[in-house]
Amino acid sequence: MSLTFAILTVSDRSAAGTREDLSGPALGKAVERAGWVVSATVIIPDEIQQITDQLKTWADSGGIQVILTTGGTGFAPRDITPEATAAVIDRHAPGLAEAMRAGSLNITPHAMLSRATAGIRKNTLIINLPGSPKGALENFQIIAPVLPHAVQLLENDDRAEAGHQPGRAV
Length: 170
Prior knowledge:
Number of strands: 6
Helix content: 40-55%
Distance between the termini: 18 Å
Structural class: alpha/beta
Number of domains: 1
């Protein structure tokens, strides 16, 4: 199943041009290696209004199935991506964030410092990822296997039921 993604890098320094964005492009390559499409990428500063505006624009367009954010999920005072995401979603998807933290804990104890969240706005899944390329890719790899099924469910696709056979764990 082909999926359409948008990638939002949230970083004061990358938005100002004082630090190269490495996470957004790394995620874009990972998405494309999975056989999916990245239709939009944007770099913005850690400003709640800019983050919420961009998430709403993409989710409300109807053309983006999954939005990945990278950056702003830690403990620093300007790390506000989870709050911006919570402000725009209609429903939470806690299992994705829980899975990312659990999987990342096998790699680093710093995973427990992640405040990343995930949720749904209309038919678009929004997922926060860490700001480091390594962390962003590790977390993306944890959730990537379930994304096609998640999108099928969001789109009320009849094929979503094919994976729900009696006696079979999903």
